[in-house]
């Protein structure tokens, strides 16, 4: 048995929320795929409300800085950025912390378009991006009944992480070549 004094919890939970406003004549990206619709979600990046909420859930689970701190809207590098970049950074930080994703569950709230016909494709893409089985990505879509939010899309996400290994050391790498 390897010696261990690893006191980190076996599981960790993360929660993410995001909202974006619909704008005419821009692509609608949700969960890393483009949906056919006459409006898209505005934002500094590509406005992918679901990937943003998943990213914040991953970062929150390991108590890392949130998506706005890591990718500030004031930074021109992220103008029009593919939100997959943000998700991959969250995933990298989770893995570097010695955790993997057990499952995620998401709720999308939007008046239109209907998500049902695209649900399987969104779940498959999110599972692919996260490196988990499709059965580990839950997705429900709701309309904003009584909320008077017809022009917004909202995402809520929870993620469960499982400890897999010791955290990766973050110290700078030693030079590969040694003096002899
Ligand atoms: Mg956002």
Helices and strands in order, then pairings?
Layout: E1 11-24, E2 28-30, E3 33-35, E4 39-41, H1 49-61, H2 67-70, H3 84-96, E5 99-109, H4 119-130, E6 137-142, E7 152-163
Parallel strand pairs: 5-6
Antiparallel strand pairs: 1-4, 1-7, 2-3, 5-7
Bound molecules: magnesium ion.
Magnesium ion binds at residues 18, 20, 43, 49, 52.
What is the CA–CA distance across the termini?
36 Å
In terms of per-residue confidence, which ranges show pLDDT below 50 for 5 or more consecutive residues? none
Instruction: State the strand order across the main sheet.
Output: 4-1-7-5-6
CATH topology: 60s Ribosomal Protein L30, Chain: A
Please describe the structure with a list of short key phrases separated by commas or semicolons:
globular, 180 residues, alpha+beta, single chain, two-stranded antiparallel sheet, binds magnesium ion, 60s Ribosomal Protein L30, Chain: A, five-stranded mixed sheet
Describe this structure in words.
This protein is an alpha+beta fold and 180 residues long. The protein has a single domain, classed as 60s Ribosomal Protein L30, Chain: A. It contains four helices and seven strands; from the N terminus they run ββββαααβαββ. The chain has helices at 49-61, 67-70, 84-96, 119-130; strands at residues 11-24, 28-30, 33-35, 39-41, 99-109, 137-142, 152-163. The chain has a five-stranded mixed beta sheet with strand order 4-1-7-5-6. A two-stranded antiparallel sheet has the order 2-3. Strand 2 and strand 3 form a beta hairpin. Helix 1 (49-61) packs parallel to helix 3. The two termini are 36 Å apart.
């Amino acid at each position: 048995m390897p010696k261990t004094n690893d006191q980190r919890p076996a599981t960790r939970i993360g929660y993410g929320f995001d909202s974006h406003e619909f704008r005419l004549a821009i692509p609608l990206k949700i969960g890393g795929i483009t949906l056919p619709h006459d409006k898209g979600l505005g934002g500094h990046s590509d406005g992918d409300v679901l990937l943003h909420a998943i990213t914040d859930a991953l970062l929150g689970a390991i108590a890392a800085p949130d998506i706005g701190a890591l990718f500030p809207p004031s930074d021109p590098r992220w103008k029009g950025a593919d939100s997959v970049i943000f998700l991959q950074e969250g995933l990298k930080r989770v893995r570097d912390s010695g955790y993997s994703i057990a499952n995620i569950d998401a709720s999308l709230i939007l008046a239109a378009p209907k998500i049902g016909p695209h649900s399987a494709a969104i779940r498959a893409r999110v599972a692919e991006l996260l490196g988990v089985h499709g059965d580990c990505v839950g997705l429900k879509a709701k309309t904003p009944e009584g909320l008077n939010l017809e022009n917004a899309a909202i995402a809520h996400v929870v993620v469960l992480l499982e400890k897999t290994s010791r955290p990766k050391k973050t110290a700078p790498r030693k030079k590969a070549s040694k003096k002899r």
